[in-house]
Amino acid sequence: MAPGLRVGLLGYGVVGRGVAQILDARGDVEIRKILRHTPDKVTEARMTANADEILDDPDIDVIIECMGGLEPAHTYVMRAMQAGKHVVTANKKMLATHIIEIAAACETLDKKCRFEACVGGGIPWIHEILHIRRIDAVTSFRGIFNGTTNYILTRMTEEHASFAEVLAQAQAMGFAEQDPTDDVDGFDARYKGVLTCAAAFGRVPDPEEVPTFGIRGIAPCDLDYARVHGRVIKLVARGSFDGGRLALTVVPTMVREKDPLASVHDNFNGMEAESTTLGRSFYAGQGAGSLPTAHAMVQDLLSIPHPYSIDVHPSGKLAKRPAVYYVRGAKRGPLAELTAQDTGAAILTKPVSLQELKEHLVPEEGQKVFAAEIES
Amino acid sequence: MAPGLRVGLLGYGVVGRGVAQILDARGDVEIRKILRHTPDKVTEARMTANADEILDDPDIDVIIECMGGLEPAHTYVMRAMQAGKHVVTANKKMLATHIIEIAAACETLDKKCRFEACVGGGIPWIHEILHIRRIDAVTSFRGIFNGTTNYILTRMTEEHASFAEVLAQAQAMGFAEQDPTDDVDGFDARYKGVLTCAAAFGRVPDPEEVPTFGIRGIAPCDLDYARVHGRVIKLVARGSFDGGRLALTVVPTMVREKDPLASVHDNFNGMEAESTTLGRSFYAGQGAGSLPTAHAMVQDLLSIPHPYSIDVHPSGKLAKRPAVYYVRGAKRGPLAELTAQDTGAAILTKPVSLQELKEHLVPEEGQKVFAAEIES
Q: Which residues are bridge partners to A274 per DSSP?
């Protein structure tokens, strides 16, 4: 990007402050304006509580959106592009929901919308995928995209503590939200899986259609079962595309102890791509945090002149991918192949898709259901 | 790179063939000429055994050097740059030895010399470091840069086999050279460490000055000792730069079982960088092989227009970095702090530098010395 680039910052939370810290220390980018929610937070000359002052300012070249939430972020991003501005966003939920519309606007208006910070925080995951695609077709990916659940799973494994205890501890430390639904039920990982599909395959499903199973029902006995069998439980988003149908799932997965994903601890993220000539490549690092995420946004800003762009189409109906599952706390039903184990859990000996599994899992009286794919 | 780019390929071994396979499948790059060693290998119209036909061809824009060895590769690279050509090389030994001269020629002649394939095969390690440096200072790195020794260590650990047995097996499978010195004595990792210092810090030592200790003396009891203590032994190159003195060592290291480096198995490579805002980021993948290495060279080719360049200066004398070592098979000498262990090995309770350690290790009668840093 040419020195003298002028930026409007939408949002001044943990990430927005990190972006300002990095950019203010450089000489080549000017933050012209910063949007704050309310007039009482306007404490610097460059701050405003009026978004129009930023979106209508012809002297702003790029919008850096780190406000979060669907609206008004979505409206602001569309308005900014229509006003001739590029966009850098960290808002995975908004982008995963509106990516078809936003990618079409990028194409029509010849603007860039970069989203490295949406997925894997400081890890240059989206960049690497686009980089690989200069040469290869990416055929599949899998990864730990949510730091909160990975922190919970790590602590439960190491301290043999209950889900509720560790969640409370994570909330006290600020690693988990007061309403942890987005994280523990897998929705956050789902948005990131959708955005990875956009970068890797140019195909995206409706996020609501992605079969998703979280870790809310997990108990120490599940982690014990995994350990005894040389496995570790991780919340994994996994996508693949063979040129025809797209598959994407988010589900707790028993990975082998020697799997690189098993070495991703605490609130770190880690992901692996597979492509035609490069084979498997693995990336890990900070999945969130002020400066790592801000680093990703500044990288996006510096990369706006790069030719990378994504051509995104709706995937249509997702493919079903049969797998073998571990299940605990569900009634015997149509999935009658359940085999009893000493933990009170069962292994579905006949592979089923996550779609089918979710349909047929009915909790037993007073039990929480937990299911995990057993990686083949 | 503009379509229509014209390439001269020096060398047509495993990597050269991979490069030709990828480029021939694309429409945007023409391989004008390929250098073969001897006239009897000239089996295609674009092949020649005469390097002048390539180096003097004004219609060749970029030389892709995958011949290996110090000479004539070094002379050819210098001649190519003087003739106005960019260079992409996979020749770590040549580049680590001549990088000061070659970087100066890049500067003077306004040419690029890209070397992703020299370090970590298909892993975009050099690219990532240069990418991070757009924003951050890189402060340190460590990694498993040699696939052959990692394969040997993995097999010894899993099969409880001797070094000699596993080396013979690796040689039979083509994972190790008939003369394995460069790999098992750490020289290959040393070249890669030197080139990482160039990219990360802009400072390089004379490769001969880098304290290096290989795995030739390792025995199953060393791996047992590590396992009992929750460690795994890996051959690690580790560098750091604080703005003053550069430190670089190559030495077997007992890393914790939970360390990401411990999850790098078989002939894979894995490396970690630490930088100011991004924190720790970790990369792993194929460290060698025809197509992954060729992929890296084609990435370099496509990235020639990027502004990334390295400004490299001699580091001067390397800093000493004290560490705690495990030592087996050495006589008690000036390092009298040796503490006997049940394996016949000892732990140096007082931290010493690898430089000092190497000076004072005298083999016991009929023993091979093995030493490993115990990661703090």
A: A140, A280
The rounded distance, in Å, linking the Cα atoms of A156 and A201 is: 35
Residues of A in contact with B292 (CB under 8 A): 277-279
A104 CB neighbour count, 10 Å cutoff: 13
Name the 3-class secondary structure at B108: helix
Q: Tell me the C-alpha to C-alpha distance, in Å, between residue B103 and each of A314, A373, B38, B112, B192.
A: 47, 51, 31, 9, 16
Q: How many CA atoms lie within 13 A of B198 on its CB side?
A: 33
Query: How far is residue A7's CA from residue A3's CA, in Å, rounded to a whole number?
Result: 12
Q: Residues A220, A292: contact at Cβ < 8 Å?
A: no
Task: Tell me the sheet residues that pair with A246.
Answer: A241
What's residue A308's pLDDT?
78
B131 touches chain A (CB under 8 A): yes
Structure tokens at A68: 């979060």
pLDDT at B360 over 90: no
Q: Strands of B86-89's sheet, edge to edge?
A: B47-48, B29-35, B5-10, B62-65, B86-89, B113-114
A268's enclosing H/E stretch is strand A268-275
CA A103 to chain B, closest CA, distance in angstroms equals 25
- Residue B96 phi/psi, 5° resolution? -60, -35
Q: How far apart are CA A18 and CA A290, in angstroms?
A: 5
Res. A339: pLDDT tops 70: no
> What pLDDT score was predicted for residue B13?
94
List of domains in chain A? 5-114 (3.40.50.720), 125-281+313-374 (3.30.360.10)
CA distance A55 to A80: 5
- Cβ distance A304 to A114 under 8 Å? yes
pLDDT category at B337 given cuts 50, 70, 90 is low
- Residue A284 with chain B: CB contacts under 8 Å: 260, 281-284
Which of B124, B136, B295 lies at the smallest CB-CB distance from A295? Answer: B136
Mean pLDDT calculated for residue range B272-300: 95
% pLDDT > 70, chain B: 96
Active-site position among B85, B112, B192, B234: B192
* Residues of A whose CB is below 8 A from B283: 281-284
Taking only the tens place, the pLDDT of each residue in B258-270 is: 899 999 999 999 9
A286: number of Cβ within 10 Å? 24
